[in-house]
Amino acid sequence: MSLIHVWPRLPFKYHGKHPVSVTDIENEHVLTRWYYPATSEGDHPGIAWLPSRYHAFGLGHFLKLSKFASFPIYQYLWTFNSPVARDAPVANLFCNSGDSVKLPVVIFSHGLAGNRSMYSSLCGDLASRGFVVVALEHKDGSACAYVGSDEKPILYQRPVGNDDELLAFRRKQVEERSQDVKYVLEMLHNLNAGTPVENKMTRKISTFEQKGFQNKLSLDNMVMMGHSFGAATAITVLQQTNNFKCGVLLDSWCYAIEPTPSITVPMLSVNSETFHWPENLQSLQHVLSGGNPNNTFVTLRGTGHQDASDMPSLVPHVLLKYMGRSISADPCRALDMQSVVITEFLRRNLGMSGVDLPDYSSKIKDLARKDVVLGIQETYFKGLL
């Protein structure tokens, strides 16, 4: 039995060849964590996985625990490190011809009770391959806690009311989240142009040199990605803008999305085995009915809804099961499968050289024999095979 089942730990081993660093950028509109390929300079044994004690108390609040009862969550999660540096210089990437390569960009939206570090395994893995991943910490009350430089946390807001009021509440949040993404797009364009952006974190922890992103971002190769409610955010953004080359949806929760318009860029929908029901799938199919021939819909066998995040690798399985969380028996295996499927989709739809996107066609075929289901409930989506 792996130690992860007895004493869960980070890191999940990144698959790419680049060291990874992070920096936090906060302006008057948004709070973000940027995962990016770094030079070896500034290597560090790791940074605290938990951004602040308020995030632990926010998780307790989400679970309806008192602050006193939440204190052990803080003590426990504070012991874990992420295998990344902080504020290291941005790496220079080159293709085989020796020409410099611009870095493709992923904007990531978290699910309910998430935060900017909740998906560090996924975001760090993509950064190790050469991507800049901007992970949002949404301010709309859907994060476990939104904690900026002023350390005045906005905790998870639990909706109340009848069905119509609940739907209106979630749709308002989705619109706020979509606006967050648009603020990030503005930030990306400014950094790529060499225009400094406000960073309130500079006064607290950040020593990052923003000029490291100047003329290094491939803004023609941007990916919108999200998990659960974050996938609903990704859908809404892709319905409203044409800034993205493709999109990746992880266990979409489609409750609050609008049925139109449909999305026309290539989409990957990665689903756990436990998080799907007819109404949700019908909504998802409707918005992806633009008929892009590269649309891909897969289900990962033996996985649960939380497996896209770091939580199953951190929290003992017995406790997660007791809390009613949906997880797999082997969280690292689930993250590995997710990484393979996402990497192959991005390789096919970005077509970039100089980025660490190996051909995983044969791996996909091996996984399809037992671990990956192509589609679900006879959907019409084309798969990776």
From TrEMBL:
Instruction: Describe the reaction catalysed, as an equation.
Output: a 1-O-alkyl-2-acetyl-sn-glycero-3-phosphocholine + H2O = a 1-O-alkyl-sn-glycero-3-phosphocholine + acetate + H(+)
Which GO MF term does the entry hold, naming one?
1-alkyl-2-acetylglycerophosphocholine esterase activity
Matching InterPro entries? AB_hydrolase_fold, PAF_acetylhydro_eukaryote
Enzyme class of the recorded protein, top EC level: hydrolase
Tell me which UniProt keywords the record has, alphabetically.
Hydrolase, Lipid degradation, Lipid metabolism
Q: Which GO terms describe its biological process?
A: lipid catabolic process
Annotated SUPFAM superfamilies: alpha/beta-Hydrolases (SSF53474)
Keyword Hydrolase on entry? yes
Q: Where is the active site?
A: S228 (nucleophile), D251 (charge relay system), H305 (charge relay system)
Question: Record's superkingdom?
Answer: Eukaryota
Fetch the PANTHER family from UniProt: PLATELET-ACTIVATING FACTOR ACETYLHYDROLASE
* Similarity-based family: Belongs to the serine esterase family.
What name does this protein carry? Putative phospholipase
Q: Which organism is it from?
A: Synchytrium microbalum
